[in-house]
Amino acid sequence: MTDDFTNPIYYDEDADVSNIEDETVAILGYGSQGHAHALNLHESGVDVVVGLRESSSSREAAQDEGLEVMTPVDAAAAADMVMMLVPDTVQPSVYAQIEDELDAGDTLMFAHGFNIHYGQIRPADDVDVMMVAPKSPGHLVRRNYEKGEGTPGLLAIYQDTTGEAKEEGLAYAKAIGCTRAGVIETTFREETETDLFGEQAVLCGGVTEMVKVGFETLVDAGYSPEMAYFECLNELKLIVDLMYEGGHMEMWNSVSDTAEYGGLTRGEEVINREGMEEILEGVQNGEFAREWITENQANRPAYKQYRDAEQNHQIEEVGGRLRDLFAWGDDAE
Ligand code: NAD
Ligand code: MG
Ligand code: MG
Ligand code: MG
Ligand code: MG
């Protein structure tokens, strides 16, 4: 363990898979995270069952990998630890089906805190509740494990009735390969609120809006859409790769001095800090969560409209044609 950081970080030597050797783990869902958790646990020697609906098209894929597949209810009944890896929006209904199968001392697990933090799932007082959340898409969790490498992850304990939650959570994190890279201890609140803020203000919302408005500004001023696409979208990857590798300084050192001076003096003008603070407030006071829950209950009318508008934006059409010209891009990695 290292406590050189604000939150403790755990590694392989802090975790012991034998702490869950007597447990059966039910993985509910076999999508991005589900297949990776199930296969990694299985290969680490942990007893795994996969819970899927009778109609699920993933049943065969899981069985072909040698995993035992049951309905979510039967899987939860057979298990001591139940990991919820169905989409966040369907977790409350799946939880309602399996709730009665959680015995005193069983463990309910999540890879994202939304439903617990915003009260959409309210577990009984006598079960342990925790989160083990890899910080990456499932296919990388699986690929890294197979290569003998790890994926960084998060551990959060919400409810510890047995006194064993942490050692079992670390054992699980080790079995899926996360302690090889490092597991940061956090809380459901911190994970949920930073995740929602990040995806709204910076990663998904912020970046796409910046790209789109940059593109529109150039095109509306008479520049060609192709030039606007390359300047505002395509080159973004090159810049982000540099930041990912070596932080802002590696990026500034790699671009021209003109780009550096221009960026340092003008960047601030495009960012609205108050807007970001409002987004954080909406996450913290539950306003965003309420909106999204209501939107789902109404069968997502606004979501569909936003999505259509995004799909019909000129940048998609130009981008589609340009990407076809360098279709080898994917294999170049
Ligand atoms: P996913 O959409 O890839 O997979 C969902 C699985 O649930 C599929 O197997 C699907 O068949 C099944 N499913 C869908 N509806 C169902 C229903 N009504 N009843 C039963 N099963 C149903 O989901 P995911 O991206 O792996 O997300 C799972 C959890 O992991 C979420 O809590 C998510 O926030 C979290 N998470 C995801 C990522 C990621 O990068 N994908 C990263 C970290 C955490
Ligand atoms: Mg049980
Ligand atoms: Mg237990
Ligand atoms: Mg998220
Ligand atoms: Mg340039």
UniProtKB/TrEMBL annotation:
Keyword check for Zinc-finger: no
Protein name listed in UniProt: Ketol-acid reductoisomerase (NADP(+))
Gene Ontology molecular function: ketol-acid reductoisomerase activity; magnesium ion binding
Enzyme class: oxidoreductase
Any single GO BP term: isoleucine biosynthetic process
InterPro entries in UniProt: 6-PGluconate_DH-like_C_sf, KARI, KARI_C, KARI_N, KARI_prok, NAD(P)-bd_dom_sf
Binding site for Mg(2+) 2: D195, E231, E235
EC number: 1.1.1.86
UniProt domain KARI C-terminal knotted: residue ranges: 187-329
Source species: Halorientalis brevis
Keyword NADP annotated: yes
Pathway note: Amino-acid biosynthesis; L-isoleucine biosynthesis; L-isoleucine from 2-oxobutanoate: step 2/4; Amino-acid biosynthesis; L-valine biosynthesis; L-valine from pyruvate: step 2/4
Signal peptide coordinates: none
Its job: Involved in the biosynthesis of branched-chain amino acids (BCAA). Catalyzes an alkyl-migration followed by a ketol-acid reduction of (S)-2-acetolactate (S2AL) to yield (R)-2,3-dihydroxy-isovalerate. In the isomerase reaction, S2AL is rearranged via a Mg-dependent methyl migration to produce 3-hydroxy-3-methyl-2-ketobutyrate (HMKB). In the reductase reaction, this 2-ketoacid undergoes a metal-dependent reduction by NADPH to yield (R)-2,3-dihydroxy-isovalerate.
Family as reported in the entry's similarity comment: Belongs to the ketol-acid reductoisomerase family.
Binding-site residues, Mg(2+) 1: D195, E199
Positions bound to NADP(+): Y30, G31, S32, Q33, R53, S56, S58, G138
Protein keywords: Amino-acid biosynthesis, Branched-chain amino acid biosynthesis, Magnesium, Metal-binding, NADP, Oxidoreductase
Record-linked PANTHER family: KETOL-ACID REDUCTOISOMERASE, MITOCHONDRIAL (PTHR21371:SF1)
